[in-house]
Amino acid sequence: MSHTMEGMIPKVRKAVFPAAGLGTRFLPATKAQPKEMLPLVDKPLIQYGVEEVIHSGIQNIIIVTGRGKSAIEDHFDVSFELEHLLESRGQKDLLASVRGVSDMIDIAYVRQKEALGLGHAVLRAKDLVGPEPFAVVLSDDVIDAEIPCMRQLLDVYEFFGASVVALMEVPKDRISAYGVVDAEPVAHNGAKDRLYRICNMVEKPKAEDAPSNLAIIGRYVLTPEIFTSIEAVQPGSGGEIQLTDGLKHLLRNRPIYGYKFEGTRYDAGDKLGFLKATVEFALKRYDLGGPFREYLRGMKF
Ligand code: G1P
Predict the structure, then answer these.
(1) What is the DSSP letter of 300?
(2) CB of 49 closer than 6 A to ligand 1?
């Protein structure tokens, strides 16, 4: 399909947020609190992802939750007591920031009863997504970009009408933590260094077996055939149903593109990545950046 068939390519209206993982990389903070609720400066991780998709033009959010994740539902819900308190105190800015969260979007929730893998989590959203293309966001991957990363992927999707995954170059000693693609560059919009047509992919290969240094980052635009493909695959890496294996299956009869997005990605599900993101985001804040920079300058290492 190409842009000449524009109008025949269905619009992406829904975004799925898998959020049922156990957050073991962040224990003990995640023992009684979902990792998606860890705050970067003053917003929980998942809100960065939600705002990214809203700014990309998607309004329907589906969150795949599990046990112990009710804080996520409360966060996006209306809090009458809190709003009342802030109103009575005349704290207008805080009131607006609290209301903004619940006004943001339409959210549906579905449970993943057991953490059986990312592919399995996405499959739980099948009935809510229906027969239409959709986005997937892994909220651990926080991406700071001028054009939201999901918008960049949607631009590629809207041109080709095919699934698209976000890609990033990763050093060899880190590559085995990712889904890795074997891909050929494709000229697009006058550039030849961002878009790839994927030939193969593998979840968490050993460094010596990795087909390239191009890792999949947690942003996907998927066509609905992915559900049948996920249903067809067996448990893979870590004994889990992997989304990467589903995509590899889909590749048998559908093209998949990869896009090396513009922006900075933080692995906020990892302690060091989380600290880096916290510092960078705090430095960028109009109200905190100045005093925080001053504090950092005065630190003795
Ligand atoms: C998941 C995916 C993997 C991808 C990664 C990006 O892995 O399975 O393919 O590269 O997200 O963050 P996880 O980090 O959940 O182990």
Answers:
(1) -
(2) no
Distance of CA 132 to the CA centre of its chain: 19
Rounded to whole angstroms, the Cα distance separating 283 from 270 reads: 20
So what's the pLDDT on residue 102?
67
Q: What is the pLDDT of residues 60-73, one digit of tens each?
A: 999 999 887 889 98
Q: Which of 136, 138, 202, 203 to mutate to test the pocket of ligand 1 (most atoms within 8 A of CB)?
A: 138
Map out the domains of the chain as residue ranges.
Answer: 10-269, 273-301
- The answer to whether residue 193 scores a pLDDT higher than 90 is no
Q: Which two tokens stand for residue 281?
A: 């985001």
Global pTM value: 0.93
Reported as a single tens digit per residue, the pLDDT across 231-278 is 999 999 999 999 999 999 999 999 999 999 999 999 999 999 999 999
Rounded Cα distance between 18 and 126, Å, is: 12
pLDDT of residue 4: 47
Query: How far is ligand 1, taken at its centre, from the CA of residue 7, in Å?
Result: 32
What's the token pair of residue 203? 């979840």
Are 229 and 122 spatial neighbours (Cβ–Cβ below 8 Å)? no
Give Rg (Cα) of the chain: 20
Domain 10-269 superfamily per CATH: Spore Coat Polysaccharide Biosynthesis Protein SpsA; Chain A (3.90.550.10)
* Separation between Cα atoms, residue 42 and residue 249, nearest integer Å: 40
